[in-house]
Structure formats: C-alpha cells, structure tokens
C-alpha cells in the first residue's frame, strides 16, 4: 500500500478538489487527522505580501497559529491583519526589517513560535540564518544550513551534481584570472556566459561573444556577485543561445525519502527573470519527463536534501543540462499544486515537524495543464517598477482560476520591495483550455491606480508561436513581444473602462447615499441599488 492510500493532505486550492475526489474514488483513500503530537503550535513567517499570506493559509488549515512581522511600509498590508499575531519589525529598508536576523529571532522567541518559515527571497536561502535558528532551538522550515550553502554556490553545486552523474554544461570551476578565463573560453568556444557563483534571479550573468569582451564580462559579474551576494567568485559556461528553462519540484524528508512533483517550464523571461511559468512543459516526451524527474531526485539524494526545493535545468536540441538548485519554496509553486493536488507548503511544515513523506513517487499523477502569470506593478514595455495606490481592484475568478495575492483596494505599493501584486494561475484539462482561461482571467483583472504588466501577458498569450508551445528564453526578443504590448495596452484600457463602470456607479452611490446608512424596515429602492452594486465587489 502506498503512503497516499493511508494518509492525504487536502490541497489549498478549490480548483484541485475534483482531482482529490477522483483519487479518493479510485484509490479508496483514508483521511486521517494530522498528528498533534509532532505538530507545531505556532510558526513565524519571516516574509511579507502574498507569500506570507500563502504560508499563513497553510498554517490555518493545519490548526497552527501564525505570527507576522511587518515593517513601517507594511502597516496596512494584508498579511499583518490576516495573521493570528503581528509584530512590528522595523523601518521599511529590508536590512532593518525582513533581513534583520537578530530581530526576527527575538520576535520568534517573544511570540513563542517554535518554527520559522522564510517564504522566498529575503532570508530564504541564507545558510547563516538557518544555522542561527538551529542554534536558538527554532526549527527552520527548509533545507539544512549545509545544503543551503551547497545550493548557494553555483560552482560547488555544479561539481556536486557532476559527481552525482547529472549532465552539466561544459565550463569551468572558479576562475582566478583573465588568462585562465581566456584558455577555458577558447576550449569550449564562444559565446560564453560568465556567472557569479552566488548569483540568483538572473543577477550576475554576463555574456562574452569573443575574447575582446571577456575581461569586461568577468569584471561585471564579479562586481554584481560582490554587491548582491557578498561573493565575488565567478565561473564560465558555454552560452546556450535559445534554451528552454525547465525545473523540477522535489520534496525530501529526514528519513532519506525524496520524490519529485514533475516539472515546470519557465522559459518566458526578461533579463533572466521569470514572468510566465507552465506545467507540464510542452517540449518534453514522457520518457524525457521521467528521466528529468529521476535526475532531480538523484541529485537531491546525493547531497541529503530535505524539505521543498527545485532543481533547474536548461534544455536545448533534445539535451538536458543541470543549471542550479533553488533551496526554497519557488514563486511558481502553485501551478504544481493545482496539477498534482499536493499542497507543497503544508508538506514543508509537516516535513519540518519530523513527519515522513506522505507520498511515494507512484502516488504523484499530474492531471491537466496550468499557467502562472506574475502580475507586477511595472511598465509593461521597459519593466521598470511602479509604485502608487491601488484605487480600484477586482480579481478574476471562475472555473480553473486561482489568485495568490497580498494586496487590496486602497493598498499602496511600496517602493522598497519587489513590485509583485499577485500570482495569477489558470488550470485546464489541457494546454488549450488553460490558455483560454488565462486570457479570460487577464480580461477580468481590474487594477487601477498603478500601471501593471497585464498587457504584456496578453501579448504573450495571444502570440501564435506561444500557443503552439514554441518557446525559449529569447522568446520575447525573437517574437518582438514588446512591440505588440502597446496594442494590448490600448485594448486593456478599453476593457477596464468598461468594467470600471461598477466602481464608478458604486462610488457615485456611496457619495449620494452612504452605504453605512441604516435601511428602514420598509426598504428603499435607491438604497437597495447601492447594496446590490456594492455586493458585486466582493
């Protein structure tokens, strides 16, 4: 009997409930209560925004109290009021708030939190913070400090994965000087990518098309690595011109069990930063898909990986190459949840509490197709972040739609942090239906007061090559997507002007007949209209 036949965790997202129902009917699953003996009573979430809310929701479903921290910029943030407890951490600057290890641990102790979930970003991949938690007797919900350190060095992780038998891109170890770099580049052939060993999110990558550009590329990557990651080490890889970026979600427990939850494709990028993700990848055959998952599990076991993580690969001309390890929960984890029915965040908590994985590999049977669009407050053409107050807000809904967000109407997007507003997920029985649902959801999404990248997403989802699944990391440039965005900005503006009638009518009604007015027993026609209009906003 597989583990899932004896225990099952309900997924967070409603749209996956019928996936669970199908499993239940086919496998005669038993739903057992989660063990209270090992479970945490209180968890501090060392993050903000939508990911803080996402973790708090998992805590609430598990019967665990959540503790929020918030900076001066997040006094009106949703995660502050959603949590069971909230503590002011400091001024808006990240170093004084969400990166302040001493203060976070102090609050964890003060609140009685037994564990800390770091979310993603900030301290999520900081081995020193994980070690500090360990020393203070607080459980860090994530991999061990040792594993985080291995994953944080792209040079070391490349070597470890090569030893484990994973294919890697031809390249070097740490480059000490320009002469060594010239020898390596000549051997593997130009163009080459110079990468910061501690880099992430596309930061620290410089491309040299010839020997005359190599010294400058090394200088740039060293400087970026030192400034952003306090690590000036760099290495060289053969530069792949138009690869597909495909990653594998894994889960591992403290007993040596590791499974994969299949892959996500993240090829739609700008400046090496992901904007749209999907699962499954339209590029892989079933044989390649199984091989890719097995490679990720093999790599994870070789370094003793525990909790949730992602093994990233590049795919070009039918060949897979290991790229890097992300030792944390990924931004794009919801699409894996909706196709597998596995709640990744709950599993993180259960694993950290000492439980054995509740699934065997045979239990993971993906169904359908899902996309995620990162909805950011930014110019959709040059991608510069924008700030301001969200004047009107109404999120999309309907069949197959999930929105993970930490904002609300009246919320001001702070300039100190990432400008993400939400993660918009569309699920369908197949890729075509998922595309149609994402188009509909983008049409429905109303965000006024700040500029967003919704027109960019519309331009991509209506591109004929995207619809065919012909994508790669240079897709935006090759398909001239940014030239098409202006057209979709105009279309989006017309759509929003039409949908904004609901807000204009409500605001007029509130001005003339305040909603707080007590209705008489006989009722009032105008008041009834106000309540009907207002009810459409919620």
Summarize, please.
The chain has 538 residues and is α+β, with helices and mostly antiparallel strands. It has 19 helices and 20 strands.
% residues in beta strands: 15-25%
Give the radius of gyration: 24 Å
The main sheet comes to:
8 strands, antiparallel
Determine the N-to-C terminus distance: 44 Å
Tally the helices.
19
- Report helical residue fraction: 25-40%
- Quaternary state of this entry equals single chain
Helix and strand composition category: alpha+beta
Approximate shape: globular
Mean pLDDT: 88
Task: Tell me the strand order in the biggest sheet.
Answer: 13-12-9-10-11-14-19-17
**Beta strands, count:** 20
pLDDT < 50 stretches: 5-37, 517-538
Written account of the structure:
The protein has 538 residues and is α+β, with helices and mostly antiparallel strands. It is 38% helix and 21% strand. The protein has 19 helices and 20 strands. An 8-stranded antiparallel beta sheet has the order 13-12-9-10-11-14-19-17. α5 (127-135) runs antiparallel to α6 (145-152), α8 packs across α9 (211-229) and α13 runs antiparallel to α14. It is globular.
Secondary structure layout:
Layout: H1 17-27, E1 42-45, H2 49-62, E2 65-71, H3 78-82, E3 85-90, H4 101-111, E4 115-117, H5 127-135, E5 139-140, H6 145-152, H7 154-163, H8 178-188, E6 192-196, E7 205-208, H9 211-229, E8 234-238, E9 244-252, E10 258-270, E11 273-279, H10 286-302, E12 307-316, E13 319-326, H11 333-340, H12 344-352, E14 369-376, E15 388-389, E16 392-394, E17 401-405, E18 412-413, E19 420-428, H13 431-444, E20 446-448, H14 454-461, H15 464-468, H16 475-478, H17 481-499, H18 501-512, H19 525-535
Parallel strand pairs: 1-2, 1-4, 2-3, 4-5
Antiparallel strand pairs: 6-7, 6-8, 9-10, 9-12, 10-11, 11-14, 12-13, 14-19, 15-18, 16-20, 17-19
Helix pairs in contact: 5-6, 8-9, 13-14, 14-17, 18-19
